From TrEMBL:
SUPFAM superfamilies, per the entry: Porins (SSF56935)
Lineage: Bacteria, Pseudomonadati, Pseudomonadota, Betaproteobacteria, Burkholderiales
Positions of the TonB-dependent receptor-like beta-barrel domain: 305-701
Pfam families: Plug, TonB_dep_Rec_b-barrel
Protein name: TonB-dependent siderophore receptor
């Protein structure tokens, strides 16, 4: 999807502002090198107005480049995105396996229901990692493909408005917008170093650059690159914590290499072509994963001592984008993207072996995922029946192809044929229509509908209705309802997916071996997402919002053996992925920003947002969908001492986290939740001169450390490590 619609979703007092913001965002690349100073000023003013209104609006948040500079992430953008309302980091399920591989989870719908975009183009590289029977993937997610120094802003869209983005957006959308070509040659380089106070935690270092400018009268470019490394924790960081016989190790490390180039050709003042290509490599640095009787086994020890990478992901992209201004017909945008992901990983033991239980001798597998994406949209301003409209019409095509021999955890049982390649593919077509209608100066109504047709799972309708009512110049009410969906992923639906487990992994009372096979007869997961909120802004620096969201979720795809009857083949039992019953996700989001000093708080201001999860569970089993805090409070005290020097004091408070009480085999679990805790940080940034900036800070001031006690569902909520106090320094030079 294009980035523009994310900017004009909710909370604009007049349709004229929405239309102007949309038009300016679409037109800006077209006129960047041709518009006169007066036109540039108008466009900039309208764009900034729209962005300020949406910074912490109901259902929408924007992280700016200045925010990233003030609070730089050590490596992954998810470290910053998690501070937005409604956002947390969780594993892909509530079992605890791969607990330190936490990903962006919006409104408790899980990482698989969070759609990641880069410049409006979907990112699906995490889908190259096999989904285990309890829903986990051994993946870091898709939020670490763009270095922090290359980001212009990050837009986070939550709630019913996300439904128009199709499969996988039921929770919300994160759009990472990169820096664009400029009309003058500019360059920037950033170095970052972070060192933990505790010697058994890994440090981080990165170097990134951006270069942009004109090549000819109508030709410009942008190039960014990045080299980064976060070291692993010491393997024994969790030893002696809790009463687990086989505790997991700490956080693995990661090596990043990124380079991306964009070439923009202004064909005319109203028509532009952009060609982009990128290459990224991520390698996970092994940290031991699992201890037996206080020690690693020989294979794990060998991998740990050598600093080995146990999986390496290579992501290659190429895209072409056309933007056009067609006068009274409006503006258009057409994107074609090819995304190729190759993941090389060490085979983990079969027969239900635990996370990190590698085979002896070590063997490798390759997963190859190819995604083709074509999308076209038209934005047309209309005046019908005396009312102003901004009509969006779109068409989309996606093709996904995978080959992963490792998805056959073991050879299929006798009587079942398989190519042994793990090949599968899926095609999806979609058309959608959305209209921003100004019914009056105060009321904006946004009806929409999207039709997706999946070649394996048929057609799916996603209607939506959102509205904004401006009570007066300070108060507005926002509401929406939408039907969202998620198609079965390419592993769950592939009959060549085979996962096997012996007696220890079968349901209680059933002897092994037990097999799980992909199921081509699945139904898409669906949810009815509802939201209502109120926003207040007194135009003196005070503003607040409060939203209630309620999602009714059904047909969640699971392979929980106790809830399904196996096919009995005598010598083995076969299970399949299936559609489970209903689930409920419900909660509150709020924000309150308080000016303390200066004009509208421009010297000292307190920013706050709060998320409260009331329900997040399977209605039939009562089990949580993911391990998520009962509440999350983020606060930032921003002190702009002068034009050159500013500081931030940050605090995040996490509420209690509820674990599973029923295991995937049907066994009762005696597990403990994770209690509430708080993290504090102190940061400062200083502009040395117009070409040099420095930043430094302390994270986790109170040195509140949390430990992972095991690598399975018996860990309860203690499925991840929270690192202790750390110090960082960053320096940016530019011209």
């Amino acid at each position: 999807m294009p980035y523009a619609p994310l900017r004009h979703r909710f909370r604009r007092p007049l349709i004229s502002v929405a239309a102007a913001a949309t038009a300016s965002l679409l037109a800006q690349p077209l006129v960047a090198q041709t518009a006169n100073a007066e036109e540039d000023s108008i466009l900039q003013e309208v764009t900034i107005t729209a962005e300020d209104q949406l910074r912490q609006a109901v259902g929408v948040s924007t992280i700016t480049a200045q925010d990233i500079e003030n609070r730089p992430p050590a490596n992954d953008l998810s470290e910053l995105i998690r501070t937005m309302p409604g956002v947390n980091l969780t594993g892909a399920s509530s079992t605890g396996a791969f607990g330190n591989q936490r990903q962006i989870d919006i409104r408790g719908m899980g990482p698989e229901n969070t759609l990641i975009l880069i410049d409006g183009k979907p990112v699906q590289s995490r889908s190259s990692s096999m989904m285990r029977r309890t829903g986990e993937r051994n993946t870091r997610g898709d939020s670490n493909w763009v270095p922090a120094s290359a980001v212009e802003r990050i837009e986070v869209l939550r709630g019913p408005a996300a439904a128009r983005y199709g499969s996988g957006a039921a929770g919300g959308v994160v759009n990472i917008v990169t820096k664009k070509p400029t009309d003058q040659l500019t360059g920037e380089a950033t170095v970052y170093y972070r060192t933990p106070q505790e010697g058994n935690e890994g440090d981080s270092k990165r170097l990134g650059f951006n270069l942009a400018g004109p090549l000819a009268e109508n030709l410009s470019f942008r190039l960014y690159g990045n080299v980064a490394k976060t070291d692993r924790d010491e393997p024994g960081i969790n030893l002696g914590v809790g009463e687990q016989a086989s505790p997991a190790a700490g956080r693995e490390g990661v090596r990043n290499r990124d380079i991306d180039g964009l070439l923009r050709w202004d064909l005319t003042p109203d028509q532009v072509l952009e060609f982009e290509a990128g290459l990224s490599r991520q390698g996970s640095i092994y940290t031991g994963e699992r201890f037996i009787q206080g020690a690693l086994n020989p294979i794990q020890q060998q991998l740990t001592d050598s600093g080995a990478e146990t999986n390496r992901t290579l992501r290659r992209t190429a895209s072409v984008t056309h933007r056009g201004n067609w006068g009274d017909l409006g503006n258009s945008r057409v994107i074609f993207q090819y995304e190729d992901t190759n993941r090389r990983y060490i085979n983990e033991g079969a027969a239900g072996s635990s996370e990190g239980a590698f085979t002896d001798p070590i063997t490798w597998n390759n997963s190859e995922l190819k995604n083709y994406y074509l999308n076209g949209e038209m934005y047309t301003p209309l005046n019908l029946g005396g009312m102003s409209h901004v009509l969006t019409t779109g068409v989309e095509y996606r093709k996904e192809k995978i080959k992963d021999p490792g998805s056959q955890n073991a050879n299929p049982p006798a009587g079942f044929e398989s190519s042994g390649t793990g090949k599968a593919s899926a095609d999806t077509w979609a058309v959608y229509l959305e209209d921003n209608i100004a019914l009056s100066e105060a009321l904006v109504l946004t009806p929409g509908v999207r039709l997706d047709h999946h070649d394996n799972f048929g057609s799916n309708w996603s209607p939506s209705l959102n509205a904004t009512y401006q009570l007066n110049d300070q108060w507005s009410i926002n509401g929406g309802v939408a039907r969202a969906f998620k198609a079965p992923n390419i592993y769950q639906s592939n009959p060549e997916y085979w996962y096997t487990t012996m007696g220890n992994g079968c349901p209680i009372g059933i002897s092994g071996p037990c097999y799980i096979q992909g199921n081509p007869d699945l139904k898409p997961e669906t949810s009815i997402n509802k939201e209502i909120g109120v926003a207040w802004n007194n135009h003196q620096g005070w503003d607040a919002s409060l939203a209630f969201f309620d999602n009714d979720y059904k047909n969640k795809i699971v392979a929980d053996m106790p809830n399904a009857a196996p096919d009995d083949y005598g010598t083995f039992r076969r299970f399949q992925w299936f559609n489970a019953g209903k689930a409920k996700v419900r909660g509150l989001e709020g924000s309150l920003n308080i000016p303390l000093l200066g004009n509208h708080g421009d010297t000292l201001k307190l920013f706050n947002n709060l998320t409260v999860m009331d329900q997040n569970k399977n209605k039939e089993t009562g089990q949580p969908l993911s391990i998520i805090p009962k509440y999350t409070l983020n606060s930032t005290l921003d002190w702009r001492i002068n034009d050159k020097f500013n500081t931030e004091l940050t605090a995040t408070v996490y509420g209690k986290q509820k674990p599973r009480t029923l295991g995937s085999r049907g066994q009762e679990l005696t597990t403990e939740g994770r209690g509430s805790y708080a993290l504090f940080g102190l940061r400062a940034n200083y502009t040395i001169n117009k070409n040099l900036r420095a930043g430094f800070g302390v994270e986790n001031l109170g040195n509140k450390r949390l430990y992972r006690t095991a690598n399975s569902e018996s860990a309860g909520a203690a499925s991840y490590n929270e690192p202790g106090r750390a110090y960082y320094f960053t320096l940016t030079g530019s011209f």
